[in-house]
Automatic annotation (TrEMBL):
All residue ranges annotated as the Amine oxidase domain in the record: 14-410
Name used for this protein in its record: Protoporphyrinogen/coproporphyrinogen oxidase
Transmembrane regions listed in the UniProt entry: none
Superkingdom as given in the UniProt entry: Bacteria
One Pfam family this sequence matches: Amino_oxidase
SUPFAM superfamilies: FAD/NAD(P)-binding domain (SSF51905)
Length: 417
C-alpha cells in the first residue's frame, strides 16, 4: 500500500477527526482543512464572560456504540443528567423519573400528573422491548412518524403533550414529531441503556480528545475551501491543492457543483444563555415547557450538571427554542417574560449572556439508517463523503460516517492482484 498519498479531509468536525484517526491507524498522514478557528464542527464550546457556552444545547448519549469505540469517558470526566425530566407550566411543576434507576422516585413517578398509570406502564414496556432489540433491527423496521408510533403504541395525548413532544422536539428540532419512528426508537434505546452526559468542561472536549489522538495529521485552521473539481481543491484564498484522495467531511453541496439542490435544508435551533444567582431546578435534569403558546421548548441549568460551566459563581441557564422566531429583536425580552411566567422570578433577574442562532443544527435525512457500506461514501474516483447526514443526525452517525469514509479511501489505495 502506498503510504505517501496526499489525502485531504475537508472539515474538522467529528466525522473528519475520526476519518483522520482511522487513516493514521492505516499508516497515512492526512491533512485536514478547516474553515473555522477550531475543531469540532457543530460540537463547539465558547469561553465567554466567565462561562462555558456550548453552541446549542447538546448531550452525549453514553450508550452510543461509536462513542464507546473512540472516546475515553473517564478522560472527559463526564457529568451525567438524572434520567427523566421536569415539566414546567405556569403555576405548577412536576417530574417524570425512571424508578428503576432511582427507586426512591417510585412513588412520585406513580403519582405524577405527567400521564396516566397506563402510560407509565407502557414506558416500561417500551423500554424493555427496545432493550431486547439490536440497533440494526430497529433501523430495518417500518418507518412511520414518531407521533404516529406513540399513538399506535397506546400512549395518551396527556403524556405525549407533557413529555414526549417537548422532549423529542428538543432532540429532533422539529415541532410535529414527524421524524421517523426508527430514530425515536434508537434514541429512546440509547437513553434506556446509558446516560445523557456532558464533558465536565463542555462538549468541545469530545473533539479536543479526538484531536489529541492524532499524531501524524496536519490540521490547517482558518482555511476555507471554495470548490472541489476532480482532484483539485480550490481554497477561498485562491490557492490550489492537488490531492490523491479527498474526504469531504462537511456539507458537500457547498463544494461540489453537481450536488447543489440535492440536500434538504438543515434544521434550526435558537439557544439563549442566562445567568442567575442560583438554579431554580437545583438538580441535573432537563426541564420541558409543553405549552404551545410559549417560545421556550426546553431549558437546563448547565451548572447543575457541571459546575465547571461557570467560573464566576453564577448559575448558567441554557434555553432552547425550536419554533420560528419572527422578531429577533424582541426575542430576549419575550423569553425573559416566559421565564417569569413559569418560575415567578422577575424577568429582570435573568441576565442575558449570549444567543446562538444555529441555522445548520441538524441534517434532515429522508431514509434514516444505521449502517453504511464503505463504498457508499464514494462520489467519484478519489472523492469520498463523511457526515451524519449520510445516516441520521447524531454524534454516533457522524463517527460512523467518518470511519466508513476512511475505510473506503484505504480500500481505494490498496493494490489489486
Amino acid at each position: 500500500m502506498k503510504q505517501d498519498q496526499n489525502i485531504y479531509i475537508i472539515g474538522a468536525g467529528l466525522s473528519g477527526l475520526i476519518a483522520a484517526y482511522e487513516l493514521e491507524q492505516a499508516g497515512f498522514s492526512p491533512v485536514i482543512l478547516e474553515a473555522s478557528d477550531g475543531v469540532g464542527g457543530r460540537v463547539r464550546t465558547d469561553e465567554f464572560k466567565g462561562f462555558l457556552l456550548d453552541r446549542g444545547f447538546q448531550v452525549l448519549l453514553t450508550a452510543y456504540p461509536e462513542a464507546q469505540r473512540y472516546l475515553d469517558y473517564e478522560g472527559l470526566n463526564l457529568k451525567k443528567f438524572n434520567p427523566g425530566a421536569v415539566i414546567l407550566k405556569p403555576g405548577t411543576a412536576f417530574s417524570i423519573h425512571d424508578p428503576f434507576r432511582a427507586p426512591s422516585k417510585l412513588l412520585s413517578m406513580a403519582l405524577s400528573p405527567v400521564g396516566s398509570l397506563k402510560d407509565k406502564l407502557k414506558i416500561f414496556k417500551l423500554t424493555q422491548m427496545l432493550k431486547s432489540k439490536r440497533i440494526e433491527e430497529i433501523f430495518e423496521e417500518e418507518s412511520i412518524t414518531t407521533a404516529d408510533f406513540l399513538r399506535s403504541f397506546g400512549f395518551s395525548d396527556q403524556i405525549i403533550e407533557n413529555f414526549f413532544k417537548p422532549f423529542f422536539k428538543g432532540i429532533f428540532l422539529e415541532n410535529g414529531l414527524e421524524t421517523s419512528s426508527r430514530m425515536f426508537k434508537f434514541v429512546f434505546k440509547m437513553f434506556s441503556l446509558g446516560h445523557a452526559a456532558v464533558p465536565e468542561k463542555g462538549m468541545q472536549q469530545i473533539a479536543e480528545q479526538l484531536k489529541g489522538k492524532l499524531t501524524k495529521t496536519q490540521i490547517r485552521l482558518n482555511t476555507p475551501v471554495k470548490t472541489i473539481e476532480g482532484s483539485q481543491i480550490s481554497l477561498l484564498s485562491g490557492d490550489q491543492i492537488h490531492a490523491d484522495r479527498i474526504i469531504i467531511a462537511t456539507r458537500p453541496d457547498k463544494l461540489l457543483p453537481q450536488l447543489k439542490g440535492q440536500f434538504k435544508p438543515y434544521r434550526k435551533v435558537i439557544n439563549l444563555y442566562f445567568a442567575l444567582s442560583h438554579s431554580f431546578i437545583a438538580q441535573p435534569m432537563i426541564a420541558l415547557v409543553p405549552d404551545d403558546q410559549f417560545l421556550i421548548n426546553n431549558l437546563v441549568f448547565m451548572t447543575d450538571v457541571s459546575k465547571a460551566y461557570s467560573q464566576n459563581g453564577k448559575a448558567l441557564l441554557s434555553v432552547s427554542i425550536t419554533k420560528e422566531v419572527k422578531d429577533m429583536d424582541k426575542l430576549f425580552s419575550l423569553v425573559a417574560i416566559e421565564l417569569e411566567a413559569i418560575t415567578k422570578i422577575k424577568a429582570e433577574h435573568f441576565e442575558h449572556i449570549k444567543t446562538y442562532v444555529i441555522d445548520e443544527a441538524l441534517p434532515q435525512v429522508e431514509d434514516l439508517s444505521y449502517q453504511l457500506p464503505a463504498t457508499n461514501t464514494k462520489v467519484y474516483d478519489g472523492v469520498f463523503l463523511a457526515g451524519d447526514y449520510l445516516l441520521n443526525g447524531s454524534i454516533n452517525a457522524a463517527m460512523t460516517a467518518g470511519r466508513k469514509s476512511a475505510e473506503a479511501v484505504i480500500l481505494s489505495i490498496q493494490p489489486t492482484y
